[in-house]
Task: structure prediction
Amino acid sequence: MAEHLSQSELDYPFKLLEYFNGFRVSKVIFSACELGVFDLLLQSQKPLKAGEVARELGTSEDGMERLLDVLVGIEILEVEHTEGTAHYSSTDVSNLYLAKASPKSLHDMIIYNSQTIYPLWNNLVDAVREGKNQNEKTFGLSSEDIFSAIYRSEEEMLKFMGLMNSTWAIDGHDIVTAFNLSGFKSMVDLGGCSGALARELAREYPSSTVTVLDLPKVVQTAKQHFTESGCTVEFQEGDFFEGDLPPADLYILARIIHDWKKDKCEKLLKKIHSSTSPGGGVLIVEAMLFESRRGPITAQLYSLNMLVQTEGKEHPPSHYTHMLTQAGFRDVQVCRTGKSYDAVLAIK
Result:
């Protein structure tokens, strides 16, 4: 990496210091979301002083002023000074992505990262040393059954499902349009969680039926908390590892393969192949590494997260092509979206 650095970076480590402070910046955004800063500023009809924000949210004025100043520094909030007093207001970015009410809100993703992922990453050193997830050390839960840890309570399940909703709110459309899927008249999203990606599929391909298959408690929670008026997505209870798969022209595995070890994924893909008629297919959605191992940094960080939280990892396209071919699929196509997640389509 050093040969790519400028002389100024070698003289003083600006980039390294920025990286060192990255966790502080993350925690500032996490904390502001948890406190309700962005929702308050969105609802306010005028810029607010730090003291006003502090009173509304039940914090100290000094602490809130410092938090708001950092949010201004990283260009998430605006500040204007009137008669020597700072008044803070929201920006288009904070309104669109950080306030709860926005259809593109990342609030649930941020809460999950703050309350679940952040504690897990405190044990990253142990994860690297041991080569296994840190659910036991972090939460006192078995490292063997990863979704028993992820779904350890209704509150945690809702957090995870909120994470999925946030993910597909910003990445879903790019995924469902990565390929023309209109030829597939029945689609089943295996492990489709809250149904957020399935809803994107249903909107883009209204002539196709879209079904989410997931564990009974997930389906029940999705129906109770995440259904939308007029949505045509259907839900079916089941375990795609253990039970029979409902018939479909296209099966979707979105953020599924990266959770599990290779042998378990190979078994699942062969099962899907057996359930698929000629001309049918499978769509895999994951954050894909470059073959060169030089990025993307988001996918590399996600892969490290899979070590800390699950038993899987992220892979380059060649890994998925090989697995799909070994399972019996042909005509494997890869689409990089340029966003967080990419897609692989394979036809039987």
